[in-house]
Design brief:
The complex is a heterodimer of chains A (224) and B (476). Chain A has 224 residues and is of the alpha/beta class. Helices cover 25% and strands 22% of the residues of chain A. In chain A, the strands form three sheets. Chain A has a six-stranded parallel beta sheet with strand order 1-12-7-4-2-3, with helices on both faces. Chain A has a four-stranded mixed beta sheet with strand order 8-5-6-9. With 476 residues, chain B is of the alpha/beta class. Chain B folds into two domains: 293 residues, NagB/RpiA/CoA transferase-like (Rossmann fold); 80 residues, no CATH class. Chain B is built from 22 helices and ten strands. In chain B, the strands form two sheets. In chain B, strands 1-10-7-4-2-3 form a six-stranded parallel beta sheet, sandwiched between helices. In chain B, strands 8-5-6-9 form a four-stranded mixed beta sheet. In chain B, strand 5 and strand 6 form a beta hairpin. The chains are: A alpha/beta (224), B alpha/beta (476). Chains A and B meet through helix 1, helix 2, helix 5, strand 9 and strand 10 of A and helix 2, helix 3, helix 4, helix 8 and helix 10 of B. Strand 9 of chain A pairs antiparallel with strand 9 of chain B.
Amino acid sequence: MRLRKALAETVLPEAELSAPSPLFAAAEGNLVLRFQTALAALGATCEVVENPVVARLALMSFLRQEKVTKIMGWEEEQLPISGLRATLADLQIAYKVPRIDHQSGLDVADRDLSWLNDYPVSLTGADAGIAATGTIVLRSGLGRPRVASLVAPTHIVLLRAMDIWATLESWLLALRQSDQIDYFFGGDVAQQVWISGPSCTTGIELVLTLGMYGPRRVHVIIID
Amino acid sequence: MRLKGRWPQFWKRAHNAVADKRSQQLLQNQGQRLDARRKRRWSEIQDIQQARQQARAARLDALRNLPELLEMLTDRITARGGHVYWAEDADAANTYILDVARFHGVQRVAKAKSLTIAEIGLNATLEAAGLQLLETDLGEYILQLAERPPMHRVAPAVPMRVAEISWLFQEKLGVPETYDINLLINAARSRIRRQLLQADMGITGANFAVAETGTLVMITNEGNGRFVNSLPPLHVAVVGVEKMVRSLDDLFLLLQLLPRSATGQVMTSYTSLYNGPARPGDADGPGEFHLVLLDNGRSQLLADGYGEILTCIGCGACLHACPIPQEASGKVGWKYPGPMGSVLIPLLQAAESSGSPSVSALNGVCRDACPVMIDLPRLLSRLRSEEALTRYSVLEQFGLHLWRDMISAPGRFWEAQQAGRVVSWLLGSGKTPSWFSWPFSRWAKKRRLPPTEPESFKRRRVEEHDGKQEEDTMRP
């Protein structure tokens, strides 16, 4: 009520609302290439593969190089590749989909999440990639734990090339045109995160240090 | 309107801040670097002026329709199982948050950096109630250990040198002496993460709130905000009512201007968009969510005609562009530093507030650097004149009135000049008037009376003009 009264009493500067215009001139060239360039500028790494099978092989190769014995990530049906668990089992790499259930009651006295620190690598899919900014969009939800993109020092992302958009505006326009706003911003999605490169800080003497809390390494496998 | 804050305390802090040359240098370097980065990023946008106009229009539109937009947000959050509390002031917000914590038996609270939370003084309330409070932003964590206030909007601990932090970590955390920044950060990370994983309640702010979808938006680089709003079973967001935007289109525009103007990044590492508690079946996320919508003087500020300052998106570009706050405001203990703080602090009922609209060069660079084109010089000038009415002594006000009356009439101004010339001749031009008695002796101690010109500027100009005309008429 006080707010309405205040607004009735005040005079705000005039400013004409205009139709949104693009921030950037339409860029030429391959979207995947531009996305790769933007990722590199952010300090993330990237590889492009032909199909989901090759993506699975690329993933296994990456994990072998890292010499990991366990990883965490999204449920397999939320990822754009299949046969993940069986292949990981062959390599004797344990796969965990973390679940931290706070909905059955807020028992704040007895929780131990220190096991989250035991996973050096995490694996997720992605719902969209933005070429202009190197941003990856991840929705949380069923089979899509938030911690999978947050806690491990290395985060591997599987992204389909068809989900890459030129700019944030073009992605939003596509969502509006395909009536998908609710899919990303509606009642079923409690949280989404846009990730643009590794976690970083300049908290001490402005020196850039990667991996403050979130992953210090982000590796994107683009499935063309 | 009554300006808030304790004036003498402000001056004392300002004097101390100006005397601290080392901090000044670090803050100045930081400001210049970030200002240069902002300019570079702005140059990448095809029409930055149009983008700024659009952003300004979007923020002003949200402000004009604030009650409706806030109701839309409230409806959407509550429909998803969230709780919304409208807090009239800091006390109401603190009491509500403390009640929620007590109801759930909370012992450990993790907090992400937020100026709105600092504004209401929540830390002191929680600590007084015996709760363990963990600052999760690295800079804020260092300052919490050092028991110092934040000194910079973007990098709160920037004036602290690595040796100082090393000594602090040795004393408070038992970390072996090292000047390796990576080792120091590792030490802080392992301790903060361990405590983060045990936190019962997470408290964050938000950079924006979108009415169209009922979404709150928080940007961070370290990822601490994501930990705080994802891991603890209870999440409380404290958001000033002015953070509203109408639509996703407005949000997308502002999200691209904010990091470019703040740190010169294209995007911050993490942009979290959240809208309530975890949904049934979700793998993780808080089971309960509370949104505290904070007024705390903002309605009054609007009614008093200062609403434009509420369109600020909190990038700190004005702070980096203006030469004065770089050197002083970070150290005077303001919750909102820089030119926007110079406007906001005296108007809000902020805890421990003390500030002055005088802390700004008033040269317009703050307006030119602002991505939403806030006319800060206009607001600051208006505050300065109000300050003259509310804060200056009767003697000072009398002097200012006398000065105004003198310079507003040419005749009176001429008479005053003649009188000044006589007084100057009597005192002796260019000398210190040593015979002044208190209170003028303090004023005269470090000053010399300037020698008086034999002729006034106006008279000289008239003579020069006449002489020139004479020369012109003599030319063939």
